[in-house]
Amino acid sequence: MLDHSDDPSVERELDGNALAGVFESMFGGDMTAVPGRCAHCHTVNMVGAMRVYMGGPGAVLRCPACDEVVLRIVETADATYVDARGAAYLVFRRSPEGARG
Amino acid sequence: MVNPISWRLATVNGIRDETSSVRSLTLGLPGWPGHRPGQHIDLRLTAEDGYSVERSYSIASEPERDGEIDITVERIPDGEVSPFLDEVVVVGDRLEVRGPIGGYFVWEAALGGPLFLVAGGSGIVPLMAMIRHRHRAGATVPTRLLFSSRYAEEIIYRAELDAFAAAGDGFEVIHTLTRSRPPGWTGYDRRIDDRMLAEVLEPLGVTARTYICGPTALVEVAANALVRLGLPPDRVRTERFGPTGT
Q1: How far is A22 from chain B (nearest CA, A)?
Q2: Of A95, B48, B225, B229, which sees the most CB atoms within 10 A?
Q3: Is A12 in Cβ contact with B40 (below 8 Å)?
């Protein structure tokens, strides 16, 4: 992830690592190592492993197993909107999960 | 909610060309809390009219360095940020950064190995932080790096990787060149595929902790192949940096 495709004209298919800074400023901790369960196929993947599309007005995170939408994030001038209906749950551990596993 | 990661000013302490289109910047960050190899920073540039852009850059340096980090930047034609970092920035400039960020794509010596690293082009950068850390920490976990570049002259960190490999502490680098090969080339000569991954992985075995970073297509190919080869999916960590090619 040297430079997340610096060409603004290209729709960028990345992964959850690309949103780590945005997430951390929203949630107060690292989100990339947070496991989340897809509400569609019930697969559990860490947010860092989810596919991210950043070509539109916000970011869309999709399940790497079934490609359904797990999270949508839109930042406006005064708020951040998180549409989480595609996530059955996210697991926030009280000790850092880091690169365990 | 208190913002846990705030923007701060870094000073450009050094600039070094890695290849004709890639350069490393050393950023001075007094009081830097240290990072974990594989983490990145966000960098923000703001124009005089207030327009600002943010980009993420992997940290290339090992965390053992005190008060400064390196990032490595590839020039992307028509990009909004990379031409500035490639052409405009000079030593002494100040840049806004926040971080370190990320916890998924991270390896530390304490995690052990064996360690299998797969890089495409500038995807080497976060892996280089792991390799430099491994060396600096005196770790000897068996480690193999499979590194895909287009041309020999585009191999980032080539001399440093060769030096690490010559140290005899269990680190090996295996190159593949996808576009053209210089005379006498003994490495691979094609894009990363299942057979190449199987051959390079074989000495490490299927318990290897695996980190793959590069263009999306390369990451997909490599991750899927390695899971087919028997690596547990949760041991295969991936980071995609977009559609630039190798």
Answers
A1: 9
A2: B225
A3: no
> Per residue in A49-85, pLDDT tens?
999 988 777 889 999 999 999 999 998 888 889 999 9
Neighbours of B221 (CB within 10 A): 20
Q: Name the closest residue on chain A to residue B2, using Cα atoms.
A: A28
Is residue B230 within 8 A of residue B202, CB to CB? The reply is: no
Structure tokens at B196: 């190449």
Calpha distance B36→B8 (Å, rounded): 19
Residue A11 has pLDDT above 60, yes or no: no
Cα angle B86-B62-B66, degrees, rounded to a multiple of 5: 95
Sheet holding B68-74, edge to edge: B52-58, B40-46, B94-101, B8-17, B22-28, B68-74
What pTM did the predictor assign? 0.89
Q: Do A3 and B3 touch (CB under 8 A)?
A: no
The dihedral formed by the CA atoms of A46, B245, B24 and A20, expressed in degrees to the nearest 10: -20
% helix / strand / coil in chain B, to the nearest 5? Answer: 25, 30, 45
Q: pLDDT digits over B4-34, tens only?
A: 578 999 999 999 999 999 999 999 999 888 9
CB contacts, 8 Å: B1 with chain A: 26, 28
Q: Please name the residue of chain B whose CA is at the shortest distance from the CA of residue A20.
A: B102
Q: Which residues of A touch B213 (CB under 8 A)?
A: 1
- Separation between Cα atoms, residue A20 and residue B212, nearest integer Å: 17
Closest CA to B148 of B175, B124, B187, B181: B175
- Beta carbons of B55 and A98 less than 8 Å apart: no
Domains of chain B: 8-101 (2.40.30.10), 109-240 (3.40.50.80)
